Amino acid sequence: MRSFLPSGDRGSTLPIYIWLTAILLFAALAFFAFAQAASARNGAQSAADAAALAAAQSSRDELMNGLGEAIDGGDDWFGWLEGQNVAGANAQAAAGQLAAENDADVIAGPEATQVNGFPGYRVEVRTRYTVGDTVIPGTENKHATAHATAVVQPRCEIPADADFKEAVQLNCDGTPFEIDPEDFDLEDLPDASALFSVHLAD
Fold this sequence. Notes:
By secondary structure, the protein is an alpha+beta fold. The protein has one domain. Helices cover about 45% and strands about 25% of the residues. Strands 1-2-3-7 form a 4-stranded antiparallel beta sheet. It has a 3-stranded antiparallel beta sheet with strand order 4-5-6, with no helix packed on it. The longest helix is centred in the N-terminal third of the chain and has 67 residues, at about 5-75.
């Protein structure tokens, strides 16, 4: 088929095609760079979530140990059941381990905090890997960071007239449970998840 464009016009369109192709190529590479950055951010957030949850779960274990020892020793155990008294002795190690398993490092925290009156931990992490080489300068040295807060929330309600020295009937999110200090064995305590929930803060 014969072209109806003058030879001069056909020649002038070539630079336009090259220019448009270069723009499309750069746009594709830029999109790829943003996708890499988003992937790094998602990885950092997953690591932060895991680290914060690990710190909170460590504190829940501490609460369970303190609760059992207080009941067995005849001490006031209500505070332990309400999530008080926790010191977070192993929170740092637990958070660091989970962050490392997600290829990240804890750079701040775990910092003890409160969410709606419940104990929690805030953690900030940085990925060990970078965004990578892209058309955007500097991404080859750019690490992703993220933070998360996890909460330890007691599930059980203590009756207002309860006495820690006597048998107490608890309501733990609809499940009844009784603790009797006069007839108590550490094995009587349910699983930690029945007394305390651990979740990320909204």
